């Protein structure tokens, strides 16, 4: 019998090269003896030579698809279905090859017509490999959905993941990353594991760990790969329901962040520039647009000055340019009045906004007025406060202003140059609080 390639989906896609037993001898290979029910996932190698026993019964296998999908059956079962329609085979030697790396076949921007997309899908090559669904989903969330690859502003990001059987790697972290990047993940599971196979499943709740929300809307099941046409319309109807795409909202595109910047005399011009750099480094991370994140800034001494409000600028470039050009005021320090001013004049006009509200207070000294009452009023109004203190800023004031838990929302550095490391802490805190608010 001539050598032939057998495509098999072994909780992913694995390729099997069928060879006669004497071919193994000629190549000096030492095959691994497997059972009739060994599956691709059970072999923890990228490549392996395997030997099927004789007498594997055809009737005990369920192999799906017209190319031989063996994720819920076995390597040997795949061979029987491929080369024999009514009887088992004698001992068979295979070369088994699996690929572990996700590959993007084409981007959103590559084709503009349904006809071209269909042709491109038909040209997708058979790769091989375990179903590293977690790795593939994380790669897709981080690399696929970008403006450079064709993502359009205001259009939901959707990933439909087809899983035959179950994932061979951890999918929970990938699901978290996808939600953080605003990707609405749908899981279409095919041929769920039977009770006898549950012991081999890394996480039986893998669907709930990956989908956008665990409300049933983002999960879909097909019993097998036969007759899939009837499942297409209900799935498409879900994908076209934009108002249900709850994961399109992320901490990067669905927040209002106001910066309350201390312009008192103790700061000084050069240190004030370092404060503005700190504000810019936080602001530039967010997706600022007319339908996305909004940024505002207020400078304060004894008086307050709105440098720009949430509705003044709708591009990141304009926001960053305005921050760079803020003029230093100089004066005293009345942080409590400044919080009240910001809540009333900056957050007041956007009180009906769907975005979550954050206030970042940056100060270098003790306030001459009470901060506890104004901060509590702002938090009661739904504004989460981060307090960042430098030099002589009292820790008690920082904690009085900060939202709970205090240790996660209050930061201090002795030097203005120490503001830079706090940038990532504030960004992580905003994203953490946003995700918790969406639960």
UniProtKB/TrEMBL annotation:
Transmembrane region(s): none
VWFA domain residues: 93-239, 256-426
Organism encoding this protein: Hipposideros armiger
Signal sequence, renumbered to the chain: 1-26
Residue ranges annotated for the LCCL domain, each copy included: 30-107
Protein's UniProt keywords contain Signal: yes
UniProt protein name: Cochlin
CDD domains assigned: vWA_collagen (cd01472)
Keyword field: Glycoprotein, Signal
UniProt keyword Glycoprotein, yes or no: yes
Classification via Gene3D superfamilies: von Willebrand factor, type A domain (3.40.50.410)
């Amino acid at each position: 019998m001539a050598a032939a390639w057998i495509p098999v989906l072994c909780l992913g896609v694995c390729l099997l090269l069928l060879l006669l037993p004497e071919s193994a001898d000629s190549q000096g290979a030492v095959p691994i003896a497997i059972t009739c029910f060994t599956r691709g996932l059970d072999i923890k190698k990228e490549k392996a030579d395997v030997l099927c026993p004789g007498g594997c019964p055809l009737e005990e296998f369920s192999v799906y698809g017209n190319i031989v999908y063996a994720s819920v059956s076995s390597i040997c079962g795949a061979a029987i279905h491929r080369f024999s329609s009514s009887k088992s085979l004698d001992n068979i030697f295979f070369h088994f090859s699996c690929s572990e790396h996700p590959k993007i076949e084409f981007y959103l921007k590559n084709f503009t017509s349904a006809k071209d997309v269909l042709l491109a899908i038909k040209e997708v090559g058979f790769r091989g490999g375990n179903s590293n669904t977690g790795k593939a989903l994380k790669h897709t969330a981080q690399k696929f959905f970008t403006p450079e690859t064709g993502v359009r502003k205001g259009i939901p990001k959707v990933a439909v993941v087809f899983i035959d059987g179950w994932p061979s790697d951890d999918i929970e972290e990938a699901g978290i990353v996808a939600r953080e990047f605003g990707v609405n993940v749908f899981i279409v599971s095919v041929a769920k594991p039977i009770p006898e196979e549950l012991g081999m499943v890394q996480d039986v709740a893998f669907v709930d760990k990956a989908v956008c929300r665990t409300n049933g809307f983002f999960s879909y099941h097909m019993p097998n790969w036969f007759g899939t046409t009837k499942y297409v319309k209900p799935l498409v109807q879900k994908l076209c329901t934009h108002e249900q795409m709850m994961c399109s909202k992320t901490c990067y595109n669905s927040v209002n962040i106001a910066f309350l910047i201390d312009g008192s005399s103790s700061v000084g011009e050069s240190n004030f520039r370092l404060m503005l750099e700190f504000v810019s480094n936080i602001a530039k991370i967010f997706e600022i647009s007319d339908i996305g994140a909004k940024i505002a800034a207020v400078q304060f001494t004894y008086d307050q000055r709105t440098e720009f409000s949430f509705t003044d600028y709708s591009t990141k470039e304009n926001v960053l340019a305005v921050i760079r050009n803020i003029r230093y005021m100089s004066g005293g320090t009345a942080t409590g009045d400044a919080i009240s001013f910001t809540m009333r004049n900056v957050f007041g006009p956007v009180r009906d906004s769907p975005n979550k509200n954050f206030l970042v207070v940056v100060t270098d000294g003790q306030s001459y007025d009470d901060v506890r009452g104004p901060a509590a009023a702002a938090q009661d109004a739904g504004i989460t406060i981060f307090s960042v203190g430098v030099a002589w800023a009292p820790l008690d004031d920082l904690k009085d202003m900060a939202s709970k838990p205090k240790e996660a929302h209050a930061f201090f550095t002795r030097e203005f140059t120490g503001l830079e490391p706090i940038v990532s802490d504030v960004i992580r805190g905003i994203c953490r609080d946003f995700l918790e608010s969406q639960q």
